[in-house]
Write a structure and sequence with these properties.
alpha+beta, five-stranded mixed β-barrel, two-stranded antiparallel ribbon, about 20% strand, elongated, binds zinc ion
Length: about 240
């Protein structure tokens, strides 16, 4: 089938020539898709501003060799409230950036797609602190990609124990016997916070206001952990207010 229909979320977009827009999308069934919407930047275009980052869309595409061609776009959810708030936009941009990194082209990504849509909905709602939603999303994304950090049992020996330090390279918290001495001792609330961010649903994280000390430590660990596994920097992450 050369023509197909998909639900997707618009990741980055950029202009091409006078009137075209190229968009990267995360779709349910085809994974990451690169597509061109021709003539979208003309005032009478049928697509108007529908292919903007964050938009949750229903679209029809023609399969192409390098780029698929968008023939129709309907917006399922524009996430308008998210777009109107700077802190939510930067947190959401960091999410799109991470998804763009992990998604594979032409490989179904239903769980990734659902996780992203849920996280954008949580940001579009009334999150107490968008950075908490971002951090919860990133930990869930790591777990989905096969890098679930050990937070309840020691990443070294597997024992249930008090974990007061975290090793990015070893994949989680470490007990007193397994720590090498290089890891700094964490605030008492940090490991429980990491466990809550990973285990709770995104709406719970959107309503949470964890204490600032644990927030800072957890944020730094999550950023380091994600960048270690993605093998690249998350450019938007430092712009997120905490
Ligand atoms: Zn241990």
């Amino acid at each position: 089938m050369n023509l197909y229909r998909e639900h997707g979320v618009v990741l980055p977009t950029w202009k091409r020539g006078e009137a075209d827009r190229i968009a990267v999308l995360l779709t349910q069934g085809e994974g990451k898709v690169r597509a061109v919407a021709k003539g979208v930047r003309k005032t009478k275009s049928r697509f108007g501003g529908r292919l903007e980052p964050f938009s949750h869309v229903d679209l029809s595409l023609y399969r192409g060799r390098e780029l698929d061609i968008v023939t129709q776009v309907e917006v399922i959810n524009p996430f308008r409230t998210l777009r109107e708030d700077y802190d939510r936009v930067v947190a959401g941009t960091a999410m799109l950036e991470a998804v763009d990194q992990v998604a594979q082209e032409r490989e179904g990504a239903i769980r990734l797609y659902l996780l992203l849509v849920r996280a954008l909905r949580a940001l579009d709602g009334a999150p107490r602190d968008p950075s908490v939603v971002l951090d919860a999303f990133l930990l869930k994304l790591m777990a989905l990609e096969g890098y679930r950090p050990a937070l309840a049992e020691c990443a070294g020996c597997g024992q249930q124990a008090a974990l007061r330090c975290f090793s990015i390279a070893r994949g989680g918290g470490l007990c007193e016997r397994c720590r090498s001495g290089e890891e700094s001792t964490l605030d008492q609330g940090t490991m429980p916070l990491l466990a809550a961010l990973l285990g709770d649903d995104l709406d719970t994280s959107a309503a949470a206001t964890p204490p600032p000390g644990s927030r800072r430590e957890a944020g730094a660990l999550i950023r380091g952990y994600v960048e270690y596994h993605l093998e690249r920097r998350l450019r938007s992450y430092p712009l997120v207010a905490r």
